[in-house]
Amino acid sequence: MAGYGRFITLEGGEGAGKSTLIAGLSEAIKARGHEVITTREPGGTVLAEHVRALALTPPESEHWSPLAHALLMNTAREDHLQKKIRPALEAGQWVICDRFADSTRAYQSIDGVAPDVLLAIERAVLAGTVPDLTLILDADPRALAARRTARGTQDVFENKQLAFHEQVRAAFLEIAEQEPDRCVVIDALQSPAQVLKETLKAIDTRVVSE
Questions:
Q1: Domain for residue 207, yes or no?
Q2: Can you tell me the mean pLDDT for 104-126?
Q3: Residue 98 pairs with which residues in a beta bridge?
């Protein structure tokens, strides 16, 4: 579609450096003359941010079932797509999103939701709005655990045991293997400058600019 924007998503384990990359990538794309919006999941809209709070920091002693968690993420995503992502793309803007559907596929499948159930919900919610490029920031979960400790933030996923984070890493790498035309794996333990350089190379190779 003439004038249609570009949709880039960033995935990876907790502490992989997505926020740092988004900041640098946004500035680089703006410097190329494009309008850019940055957003995140779960979140991105008023309602989706409320869902984020419920999903990631539920009241003490309360917890969601795996399926309920997956449905919450997709409820937030539906609102996010309808109110923010699709309007921006239709206006010709580039959208850079910190996490998207791949995170739900990775995390909730590990928690026990059947992959076919997750994919069925995903297809209904996305309705064809698929990222032009997904960057998977990959690193040893032990290294990322050290980063999270230094950062000092915790949520229901960051508090999981190392084995869970190893499964998350494997799930993202499997997605990248299954969808190589969309996904590019980048070593997250490189310097931020090198990660940005490789990201821009991936954009130049995979994403057609008009």
A1: no
A2: 95
A3: 10, 40
pLDDT tens digits along 130-169: 999 999 999 988 887 766 565 655 545 556 678 888 999 9
Following DSSP, what letter does each residue of 195-207 receive, concatenated? HHHHHHHHHHHHS
Residue 70, in any domain of the structure: yes
Domain that holds residue 11: 7-191
Give the model confidence (pLDDT) of 76-111 as tens digits.
999 999 999 999 999 999 999 999 999 999 999 998
CA atoms within 13 A on the CB side of 48: 21
More confident site: 161 or 3: 161
Token pair in block for residue 193:
């400058």
User: C-alpha distances in angstroms, 207 versus 51, 85, 133, 172?
Assistant: 31, 17, 7, 21
H-type helices in 8-65, by residue range? 18-31, 46-56
Q: Is the pLDDT at 21 greater than 60, yes or no?
A: yes
What is 120-162 written as a DSSP string?
Answer: HHHHHHHTT---SEEEEEE--HHHHHHHHHHHT---TTTTS-H
Determine the pLDDT at residue 165. 86
Q: Does 199 fall in a domain?
A: no
CA distances from 1 to 177, 197, 209 (A): 28, 28, 12
CATH number at residue 110: 3.40.50.300
Q: Is residue 175 part of a domain?
A: yes
Instruction: State the total domains in the chain.
Output: 1
